[in-house]
């Protein structure tokens, strides 16, 4: 439990799935923190100071010490605040949780985004194929209500991108990438996850985010003509 | 029950080397299995069905895939000697960050140095040198990234040193000229027994790169 709100800061941007991961973890552990909304087009000096290498959000700052990369931040949070653990204590189970979170980052996040935000038809098909394959692997892996079993864990939190962002962006391109017909277990998981009391209150408002991505998509289409 | 440890590997893989070093640091006896990547064994396909890649660490029949995840696993299970990750959570987070940086910048970019040409290669060279310099900066005055002894980032990074002859020859540059402190660090690392006995000879790796370039048609 934090005693002073100023000790814990999160530099983020509403709408970022990576920032959302950190917010969910902090909320799950009931950690009070100060959220600093960053303008990603006009990055603050603070952001550039704390993350000179990638200049990205999220940046988690604990007692003036910055930590970057969302999954690294999640591990740190879990180590410092032991209540409601998000990683298993058994080393083998931990290695599996790390494996699947990395899988989501490496195989699903980029490929699914590119399934929408790519103009070239052939390229887009390739990304759709990759995403579908990866989602199928995850579908096969899901055994219980959540990846963490009865409660949400590290992998579920990492997968917030799938639950909230993929359905949003696929609507823009009228793509049927992630549906309950194709991935019944994963789709079910996404509904349970989005309705989880902690997750629900940490999702960004859908409409402005949709408008933001639609503008990007329209811009892409216009530029290609 | 005696621990059964097997490593499915491929001798020039820097990712495999990471696990070899970690196992050696901890003094763990294991069975090394060389995989033919053109003819992957049923064991490999069974143990890593998702990626079908090496390295795979198998501990008492349970597979751990992805080299950095395997090294962390080794550190957590065999926690009685030679800790690789710092105990302080903040220092640990920094070690994890830099190991991830190595994956993003050294491996991905390094690959372009011997597979690409022209502008793409030049851009990769610039990025690579920048990354080495940043790592050098992070090392600072420390003997190793882990401080006085080998740590997680050292283990993550040193295997790529065996690929430098290839990077330098095909990228046409010299790492020592650009970052003498970095090379000094690398040379210190290979003095350590667990490292030297886990890494193949640079010339052997170079010959391997030459062969692949021919196979994939880079001229």
TrEMBL record, chain A:
Residue ranges of domain GST N-terminal in the record: 6-85
Example of a GO cellular component annotation carried by this entry: cytoplasm
One biological process term in Gene Ontology: glutathione metabolic process
UniProt xrefs under PROSITE patterns: GST_CTER (PS50405), GST_NTER (PS50404)
Catalytic activity: RX + glutathione = an S-substituted glutathione + a halide anion + H(+)
EC nos: 2.5.1.18
Molecular function, one GO term: glutathione transferase activity
All residue ranges annotated as the GST C-terminal domain in the record: 90-212
Keyword line: Transferase
Keyword Coiled coil among UniProt keywords: no
Family: Belongs to the GST superfamily. Tau family.
Designated name of the protein: glutathione transferase
Species this protein is from: Trifolium subterraneum (Subterranean clover)
TrEMBL record, chain B:
CDD domains hit by this protein: GST_C_Tau (cd03185), GST_N_Tau (cd03058)
Statement: the UniProt record of this protein carries the keyword Cytoplasm: yes
Segments forming domain GST N-terminal: 3-82
Any one GO biological process: glutathione metabolic process
Gene Ontology MF, one: glutathione transferase activity
Subcellular location: Cytoplasm, Cytosol
Family classification: Belongs to the GST superfamily.
Name recorded for this polypeptide: Glutathione S-transferase
Gene source species: Trifolium subterraneum (Subterranean clover)
């Amino acid at each position: 439990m934090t005693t002073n709100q100023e000790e814990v800061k999160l530099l983020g941007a509403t709408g970022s799935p990576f920032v959302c991961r950190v917010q969910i973890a902090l909320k799950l552990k009931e950690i009070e923190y100060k959220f600093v909304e960053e303008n990603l087009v006009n990055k603050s000096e603070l952001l550039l100071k704390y993350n000179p290498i990638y200049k990205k959000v999220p940046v988690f700052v604990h007692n003036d010490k910055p930590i970057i990369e969302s999954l690294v931040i999640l591990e740190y949070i879990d180590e410092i605040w032991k209540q409601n653990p998000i990683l298993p204590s058994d080393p083998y189970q931990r290695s599996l949780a790390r494996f699947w979170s990395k899988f989501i980052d490496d195989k699903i996040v980029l490929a699914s985004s590119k399934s929408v935000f790519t103009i070239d038809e052939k390229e887009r098909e390739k990304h759709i194929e990759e995403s579908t394959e990866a989602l199928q692997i995850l579908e096969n892996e899901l055994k219980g209500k959540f990846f963490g079993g009865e409660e949400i864990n590290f992998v579920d939190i990492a997968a917030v991108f799938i639950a909230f962002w993929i359905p949003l962006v696929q609507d823009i391109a009228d793509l049927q990438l992630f549906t309950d017909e194709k991935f019944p277990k994963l789709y079910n998981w996404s509904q349970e996850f989005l309705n989880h009391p902690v997750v629900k209150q940490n999702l960004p408002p859908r409409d402005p985010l949709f408008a933001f991505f639609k503008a990007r998509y329209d811009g892409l289409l216009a530029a290609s003509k | 029950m005696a621990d059964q440890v097997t490593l499915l590997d491929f001798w020039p893989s820097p990712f495999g080397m990471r696990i070899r070093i970690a196992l050696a640091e901890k003094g763990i006896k294991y069975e090394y299995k060389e995989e033919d990547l053109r003819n992957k064994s049923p064991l490999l396909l069974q143990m890593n069905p998702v990626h079908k890649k090496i390295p795979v660490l198998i501990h008492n029949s349970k597979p751990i895939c992805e080299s950095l995840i395997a090294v962390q696993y080794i550190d957590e299970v065999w926690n009685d000697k030679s800790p690789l990750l710092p105990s302080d959570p903040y220092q640990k987070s920094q070690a994890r960050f830099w190991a991830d940086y190595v994956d993003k910048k050294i491996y991905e970019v390094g690959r372009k140095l011997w597979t690409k040409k022209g502008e793409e290669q030049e851009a990769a060279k610039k990025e690579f040198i920048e990354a080495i310099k940043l790592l050098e900066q992070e090392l600072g005055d420390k003997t190793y990234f882990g401080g006085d002894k080998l740590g997680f980032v050292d283990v993550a990074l040193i295997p790529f040193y065996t690929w430098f002859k290839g990077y330098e020859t095909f990228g046409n540059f010299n790492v020592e000229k650009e970052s003498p402190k970095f090379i000094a660090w690398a040379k210190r690392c290979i003095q350590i027994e667990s490292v030297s006995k886990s890494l193949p000879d640079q010339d052997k790796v170079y010959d391997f790169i030459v062969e692949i370039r021919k196979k994939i048609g880079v001229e």
